[in-house]
Design a protein that fits this description.
The structure is a single chain. The chain has 138 residues and is an alpha+beta fold. Helix content is 57%, strand content 20%. It has one domain (25-137). Helix 3 packs antiparallel against helix 4. The longest helix has 24 residues, at 79-102. The chain is elongated and about 65 Å long. The termini are far apart.
C-alpha cells in the first residue's frame, strides 16, 4: 500500500513539473514577453531561456521571435576566477568518477568522495550568469 502511494505521488510530481516548462516567462498585454534565467554557464542560460520562450509560444500555437537578448555576469568574484574554479571542480569530479569506477580498494572510495565533492563545490558556486530576453509570439 505504501509503495503504491509513493509511486502515485512521484507520478503526480513528474506530471506537474513536465507541464510547467515556462515558469520564468513574464507575459505582457502588448505581446512583448520577458524572461530572465540564472545559470552557471553563459550558454546554459541562453539555451534555457530560448527553450522556455519557445515552449510558451508553442503552448499558444504560435511561433517565437526574439526581440532582444542580453547575457551578463553578476557574480561576486571576477568572472575569470569563477570560470577557473568551475573548471577545477569539473576536473576533480571527473577524475574522482574515473577512480570510483575503475579503482580498487581505497582508491575507489576516495574517487567517490572526490566525485561528490567536485559536484558539491560546483553547486555551491551559484549561478552568476543572467540571461534576459524579450520575445513575442506570432
Amino acid at each position: 500500500m505504501q509503495l503504491k502511494k509513493t509511486f502515485s505521488l512521484l507520478s503526480l510530481c513528474t506530471l506537474l513539473t513536465a507541464c510547467a516548462h515556462h515558469d520564468d516567462v513574464r507575459p505582457s498585454a502588448n505581446n512583448i514577453h520577458y524572461i530572465a534565467v540564472n545559470s552557471q554557464q553563459k550558454e546554459d542560460g541562453a539555451r534555457e531561456a530560448m527553450k522556455q520562450a519557445k515552449h510558451y509560444c508553442d503552448s499558444n500555437k504560435q511561433s517565437m521571435f526574439i526581440i532582444n537578448e542580453e547575457i551578463s555576469y553578476e557574480g561576486s568574484q571576477p568572472e575569470s576566477e569563477f570560470q577557473a574554479n568551475v573548471k577545477t571542480a569539473d576536473v576533480v569530479s571527473s577524475v574522482g568518477t574515473v577512480l570510483w569506477i575503475f579503482g580498487d580498494g581505497r582508491v575507489d572510495d576516495a574517487g567517490g568522495i572526490a566525485a561528490v565533492a567536485g559536484e558539491a563545490a560546483k553547486d555551491s558556486m551559484g549561478k552568476p550568469y543572467v540571461t534576459k530576453m524579450q520575445f513575442k509570439c506570432q
